[in-house]
Amino acid sequence: MSPNAKLLSVATAVPPYCLKQTDVADAAHKGFESRFGAFKRLSRVFETSGIHQRYAVKPLEWYFQPLGWPERNAAYLEGAVNLFVDAATAALDAAGLRAADVDTIVTVSSTGIATPSLEARAAQAMGFRDDVERVPVFGLGCAGGVTGLGVASRLAQSRPGSVVLMVAVELCTLSFRLDELTKANIVATALFGDGAAACVLQTGDAGIAEVELSGQHTWPGTLDIMGWSVDAQGLGVIFDRAIAPFAEAHMADAIGGILARSRLALTDIDRFAFHPGGQKVITALERAFSLASGSLDHERDVLAGHSNMSAPTALFVLDRVIKAGLPERTLLTAMGPGFTTSCVSLKAAQ
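^ that's the sequence the OP posted. Answer follows.
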């Protein structure tokens, strides 16, 4: 049996514009209050979200002008490629490798359409070999970073010694919609930001941690919980059911089932690291897993400083957990469209 993959590095990147939550709230008031009677009540989410700031590929005023799909996707192509290069370069530097050392690239993104995909567009700037294998992954949403890490680890394990680069890039701010007078759109405007994260994996003796297992669980009949709608104006967010109560009711059983397949239990985990989808979701996860209130400190810090960036966000949390000192076993998890949860178990290097 092939040896498990080792995580060599994790790195993160953000775009140039830092948007204060108070400024976003003021702009939203100007854009929605006169046209949407429920806005005043819904606008409390800007204060209760736990977000202080987020990063974006465009300045705030850009989002409050008439925009269609062409303008949004053009911004996606430019911004996502830049973030891909920044995150991938930082991860490779941290691993002591060059782009030419990479054998396989897993690219995760669901906030725009890129064909050729992002890693192909970044290839010349990065210096990837012409025989590098490309695995673009679309549609996983917030679960994408964790799922991508699991996919990358299995690819590394399948070819011992090969170098696998996984990059998750999301530009969620491009889904801000002035034309959608809905609760889901207001919540998305309060919650979402842009960012990227990258990981390098390889079998061998070196590494931060061993990828012990990965798995997913998809609940039937839950397609309406989270996703995108698509029209001429761009992507529109779907939040048709309460995610926090669903997480509290169902996450522990699902994760416990994944662990049981590898003869592990929830009690074997030293640190749960979650995708911080929002303040209510973090609190619900603490309850679901019987964690002390406030124990998900890195999750709250990432949410406060970066907001919900979809796929990369869980990897921002992982980066903080690593810098604070990995415990013996860490379980990284996220929920996403499907409705799905994904997890990766990491054993700290001895």
